[in-house]
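Complex 438.
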Amino acid sequence: TRNHDVNSKGNLTINGVDTTYLAEKYGTPLYVYDVEDICIRANAFKEAFEKEGIQYQVAYASKAFSCVAIVQLMDELGLSLDVVSGGELYTALEAGFPPERIHFHGNNKSPDEIEMAVKAGIGCFVVDNFHELTWLTGITQTLETSMKVLLRITPGVEAHTHEYISTGQEDSKFGFDITSGQAEKAIAQVLDEDRLELLGVHCHIGSQIFETSGFVSAVDEIFNHLQEWRENTGFTPEVVNLGGGFGIRYNEDDTPLPLGHYVEAMVRSVKEHAEAKDFPIPEIWIEPGRALVGEAGTTLYTVGSRKSIPGVRDYVSVDGGMTDNLRPALYQAKYDAIVANKAQKEKTETVSIAGKCCESGDMLIWDVDTPVLEQGDILAVPSTGAYGYSMANNYNRIQRPAVVFLNNKSDQCVIERETYANMTRLDRPWKKTEAKTK
Ligand code: LLP
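Predicted structure with LLP bound:
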């Protein structure tokens, strides 16, 4: 659904807006989001659930991209919100997101973060381990309040994706392990606590998944154990949360499924199991991050220096890199590029796009076909809307880019570009300490 086109000047447009105009107006690097693309994707998930006639929540995993504006957009779209830290929770509350639709994740939530979430009255706390279960119990007692809880379990399903973003396998830092009996023990412990209300179970098998089979296996695993847990503890879940991870198209090799297919497969499988094993049909919750915002985002760069090694490679450097897109360095992620001001020109050369950081690994794209690239050209890299800004950093003291939202063919800045002054704002001068005399 990428809303990319070429105008009469031969320039790349997104949502009808000329990207060279955006580069000129806001400077580069620049993240540009097509809001309409996000709306289409949110609605695709919602419509799929509604067609199945099942109770559901679609929670946007805000780790993919968290800022006040995106959180407000997700609220407008009627989604719930998954946060994983005090910072994401703070952003959500600042944005005015209804706390009762916020879900809190994380494998090492601090007592301060837990207290913040309990005080805010969030809708659901996803308990990851016994340690935080103890904290949460204590904090709800001290504050004389209660909390709805999901237990995160590792269903022992291997998602076919990069090992750094696969999380459902047993040997994982996340969640309660099933086979050793941890999950059942946790269920019993939560059921015992008056201040905790056990809604159900959660699992997240991984990210950038292109098949429905992993989700179906996760449902199989969960229900096989639910039978046992019901016998031993009396617990039946009101909610089964199947996490996120729905794959998107980063480049031409990626072949994502229509979003509704995942929902259909999940719902079918949950219904089958519930009926066969005589459980009430639970609500199904999901937590897409990249599937909502990934393809909606495009990064614009300005081309700078070039280095040609005859017979080997041509390096073309842009004014950003691993500071605004860590994914190539971290996951060998592959991206495409479009030369925004030469969008219709023939691709006559093969170059490698380098970032500007002092690090050989700072390469955005290896061997991509482009029209002849010259200094000042605007290079657009699509599908950078998820885990781009959110993993951006100040390595080499490079400022994080601005973020612009586009809808109805108009542009608005939702995050300002960082300044050099921002960079030293928290720094304090060095003072030599005199040696202490006894
Ligand atoms: N729910 C849970 C519990 C998660 O851990 C994640 C991602 C999601 C939902 C959302 O996954 P998504 O739908 O966005 O794939 N930085 C990496 C991905 C790390 C994802 C961690 N958890 C990347 O750039 O690919």
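The chain has twelve helices and 21 strands.
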